[in-house]
Amino acid sequence: MGRWKIAEEWVRQYLEAVGDPLPHYMELGIVPPLAITALALGNLLEKLALPGGSIHSSQEMNTIRAVRLGEELVGWAGLERPRQRGNLRFITASYWVQDSAGNEVQKGKSTVLVPLSEDA
């Protein structure tokens, strides 16, 4: 899925984008857990190239430990078997993020609803 070095500037941009003005993360030198989730899922969803009208319906994450600014991370993802109900396809992807030593730092999963065309 991807390999990333978590730069301080990227974390600052993330905090600004989500409207978090508190200085705690930068003072402690750690990355907000949801920033890692956003990075992993953003990369995954980009690779899936979902059609317009898709809905991000659920999100689970489990943070094992804090990630420090400047750390290198690597992420993997896997897709579960798609399910269908009516005119919607449910696509669930699980992801795992590890540090450069191979220690797990976060894992989670996300489900996206993809509308099917009338003739599908």
Shape: elongated
Tell me the radius of gyration: 16 Å
Mean pLDDT: 92
Oligomer: single chain
Percent range for β-strand residues: 35-45%
Can you tell me about this structure?
The protein is 26% helix and 43% strand. The radius of gyration is 16 Å and the shape is elongated. The model has no long low-confidence stretch (mean pLDDT 92). The chain is of the alpha+beta class and 120 residues long.
Short description:
The chain is an alpha+beta fold. The chain is built from three helices and eight strands; from the N terminus they run E-H-H-E-H-E-E-E-E-E-E. It is elongated, with a radius of gyration of 16 Å.
Features of the shown structure:
two-stranded antiparallel ribbon; alpha+beta; six-stranded antiparallel beta sheet; 3 helices; 120 residues
Spell out the blueprint of helices and strands:
Blueprint: E1 2-5, H1 8-17, H2 24-28, E2 30-31, H3 33-48, E3 55-63, E4 67-68, E5 72-79, E6 83-85, E7 88-99, E8 104-115
